[in-house]
Design brief:
By secondary structure, the chain is of the alpha/beta class. Helix content is 32%, strand content 21%. The protein contains 21 helices and 30 strands. It has an 8-stranded mixed beta sheet with strand order 12-11-8-6-7-14-15-23, with helices on both faces. It has a 7-stranded mixed beta sheet with strand order 5-4-17-16-18-19-20, with helices on both faces. It has a 4-stranded antiparallel beta sheet with strand order 21-22-24-25. The radius of gyration is 25 Å and the shape is globular. The protein binds 5'-O-[(S)-ethoxy(hydroxy)phosphoryl]adenosine (WTA). Residues 284, 329-331, 405-408, 430-435, 456, 531, 543, 545-546, 552, 556-557 line the site of 5'-O-[(S)-ethoxy(hydroxy)phosphoryl]adenosine. 5'-O-[(S)-ethoxy(hydroxy)phosphoryl]adenosine binds next to helix 12, strand 20, strand 25 and strand 27.
Length: 703
């Protein structure tokens, strides 16, 4: 009896849970103007038309030479797209728009201080500035295939620098401006860059932050890894005026605005690049301490971001499109710079934080610039909702389309986005994808597929996802069971390899479900995304989060091993474990547990030192919410730290099965102390959704 009633209760709960997620349909007005409004598109991109279906995306570009082979699978899983084709990404994003749209805004840059004027960079102006900087890079001896590292914040010089590299076939590697100098130095060394491009300073939350100071740290860190940097090129936030405290090193550091004086009007012919030439590297965190340089191609990548920008972002040339992400992450590369500019639209960039000087700022910008299309992450949406729930109403803007990206969005937050930010008028796409992927993998086609809060939707055009269990059996739709989401087929936006580590590329992404290593048939090589997911009966995917040791803070992946190694740089620390804790604003925050070497006792200074080390070595974004000093870590008999047990403590979700631990008695002690302290500080745990519980339970299982 009891069993039956319990089962009924839980089924009813599940049912009500699903009932609350009703479909939302786009307005007739949106459908009438949408790029993807003809259902025939699904047929064109169906599996039987793969891989030729992607010709439709590639045909959105201007090619110097047409390709002879759409997809070459002869060396799996190193897929080659549009082989034989030649093109230039800078030409596609700039030159080809000049004849018609020379004086249309390509970029509109909004500085953080509201007293500063908004900068409009027309396609003509962008052409001029990109050419001049390209000529300068060329004179520094940089050529096709060389790498260059940028450590730039959200200033127009960042896309200008990227497009200048693309013009010459130089591989750019932008490191998120908020990362520390040391994190930048690691990436400089890994990519083998000999030039660093940075800026003296930028505005963030009302302060003018010193960025150039990080260049010295970066060069020192690179040097330790055996890498020499010849030159540091420094853009200036206020040209002619140096805003950093650090001295310029003679013969090494140069102000770009001064050098450019000799390049006025210089034009550089775009180099016709093979489709398969790398366009850029973007580093991301994964299962090992070393960040992975995801290498993206020129032709496949550009075709993929252009196609998805057209159909999923519904970008029209006449739109004013604002992606409120940082170009230091893949979202900004694909959906602020390459996709939108390739389509010849106007792309808005904002320098600062969303809530500066108040939570009405984004809506003032939207109203002033007439933004039609808005793109941001759940963490920003949560923050704006918390600090200014009624602000959007006060401003007269109208979005037709909005995007959410980077982490799962709670249905409640989704509904605020839809009703309040979108004023019930905008179609929303929840786009699931990764740094490795180039562009969207899961989403709804906005005019043709209904929205469902909390689910990204089905695979996008030409992407055929599947959920596998640990044995590689497909988990059927509607089964209510979670598993590992994989993509069965190659696609043009997929990264080509991990820079300098092809064996890691195969091992991390393809080994798990490869059916036959000698096979040259792509069907045998599913791509393992490393995310847990569930597939509903309607074909919509619900992403549960990472299955590997990665903590997604505010939509950004931080490797637990990186966080732990940073903690271990503090002398007293013997062991460290990083776990995610659910956080109202950032989605997840980091908590660190440390055990000290014998002879040391716990004190606040050690805790602060660990936080400071993480901030210094990785960046502010990674700063832990708490550092807990414990006597010992819960460990398996083989000595592995059981992160899921600690994660359960931090999140008040229970510690699960601890019978396999070598030291089960320690769990109680840690739990008692940590939870008592949290309650004392008023950190009352909120109730977690079933999805979040799953994530915590699964955390660190890859260990
Ligand atoms: C997560 C960001 C749920 C996911 C583009 C993925 C998401 C990781 C979504 C990649 C979404 C991204 N819904 N989860 N719409 N988008 N994720 O490499 O866990 O910074 O694997 O790329 O973010 O993060 P990355």
């Amino acid at each position: 009896m009891t069993d039956v009633s319990e089962a009924q209760v839980s089924e009813a709960e599940i049912a009500s849970h699903w009932r609350e997620e009703e479909y939302y349909w786009p307005s007739a007005r949106f459908i009438a103007q949408a790029n993807g409004a003809d259902p025939a598109i699904f047929e064109r991109f169906s599996e039987k038309n793969f891989p030729e279906c992607f010709k439709e995306y590639a045909d959105l570009l201007s090619w110097d030479h047409y390709w002879h082979t759409t997809l070459d699978t002869s060396n799996p899983p190193f897929w080659k797209w549009f082989v034989g084709g030649r093109l230039n990404a800078s030409y596609n994003c700039i030159d080809r728009h000049l004849a018609r749209d020379r004086n249309k805004a390509a970029l509109i840059w909004v500085p953080e201080p509201e007293s500063e004027v908004t900068h409009v960079i027309t396609y003509q102006e962008l052409y001029k500035r990109v050419n001049e900087f390209a000529a300068l890079l060329q004179d520094l001896g940089l050529k096709q295939g060389d790498r260059i590292t940028f450590h730039l914040p959200m200033v127009p010089e960042l896309p200008i620098s990227m497009l200048a590299c693309a013009r010459l076939g130089i591989i750019h590697s932008e490191v998120f401006g908020g990362f520390s100098g040391t994190a930048c130095g690691d990436r400089i060394a890994d990519s083998g860059s000999r030039i660093l491009v940075t800026t003296d300073a930028y505005y963030r939350n009302g302060d003018l932050l010193d960025q150039k100071a990080k260049a010295d740290e970066a060069l020192a860190a690179a040097k330790e890894l055996g890498a020499e940097v010849d030159r540091v090129l420094v853009w200036r936030r206020h040209p002619g005026r140096y805003s950093s405290q650090t001295p310029m090193v003679s013969g090494r550091d140069f102000f770009v605005d001064e050098l450019l004086a000799d390049y006025r009007g210089r034009v550089v012919e775009p180099v016709s690049m093979p489709a398969e030439a790398p366009l850029f590297l973007m580093y991301t965190s994964g299962t090992t301490a070393r960040p992975k340089g995801c290498q993206h191609s020129t032709g496949g990548y550009l075709a993929y971001v252009t196609g998805t920008s057209k159909y999923y972002q519904d970008i029209h040339p006449e739109d004013t499109y604002w992606c409120f992400a940082d170009i230091g992450w893949i979202t900004g590369h694909s959906y602020i710079v390459y996709g939108p500019l390739s389509l010849g639209t106007t792309s808005v960039m904002y320098e600062g934080v969303p809530t500066y000087p108040d939570a009405g700022r984004p809506w003032r910008i939207a109203e002033r610039l007439g933004v039609t299309t808005f793109h941001t992450a759940p963490t920003t949406i949560r923050m704006l909702r918390k600090l200014g729930p009624d602000e959007p109403k006060k401003y007269n803007y109208h979005f037709k389309h909005m995007t959410t990206v980077g982490e799962p969005i709670e249905p409640e937050v989704w509904r605020w986005y839809y009703n309040v930010v979108g004023k019930g008028e905008a179609a929303i796409v929840d786009t699931w994808w990764q740094t490795e992927n180039g562009g969207f993998l899961g989403s709804t086609l906005p005019a043709l597929q209904a929205m469902k809060p909390g689910s990204c939707g089905p695979g996008v055009l030409g992407i055929y996802p599947v959920i596998y269990d640990e044995e590689g059996r497909a988990v059927p739709a509607g089964s209510g069971r979670a598993g590992n989401i994989c993509i069965r087929n190659p696609w043009p936006g997929i990264f080509q390899t991990i820079w300098g580590a092809p064996e890691r590329f195969v091992q991390i992404y393809y080994q798990k479900y490869c059916r036959d290593k000698s096979s040259k048939d792509w069907h045998d090589w599913p791509y393992f995304a490393g995310d847990g997911a569930m597939l509903a009966a309607d074909g919509y995917f619900r992403i549960l989060g990472r299955v590997d040791d990665v903590i997604n803070v505010a939509g950004h992946r931080l490797g637990t091993k990186e966080l732990e190694s940073a903690s271990l740089t503090v002398e007293e620390v013997a062991e460290a474990a990083a776990v995610p804790v659910m956080d109202e604003l950032r989605g997840r925050a980091v908590e660190i547990y440390i055990a000290l070497k014998p002879g040391f006792t716990a004190n606040e200074r050690v805790e602060e030192d660990v936080s400071a080390a993480i901030e210094r070595l990785i960046g502010k974004i990674a700063r832990p919410k708490h550092v807990w000093v414990v006597q010992d870590m819960p460990k398996t008999r083989s000595g592995k730290i059981m992160r899921r047990v600690i994660a359960g403590i931090s999140n008040f979700t229970g510690v699960g099965d601890i019978t396999t631990l070598a030291n089960p008695e320690i769990v109680d002690t840690i739990q008692h102390r940590v939870q008592a302290e949290k309650l004392k500080r008023g950190e009352v745990p909120r109730e977690l959704s079933a999805q979040e519980m799953e994530e915590i339970k699964a955390f660190g299982q890859a260990d």
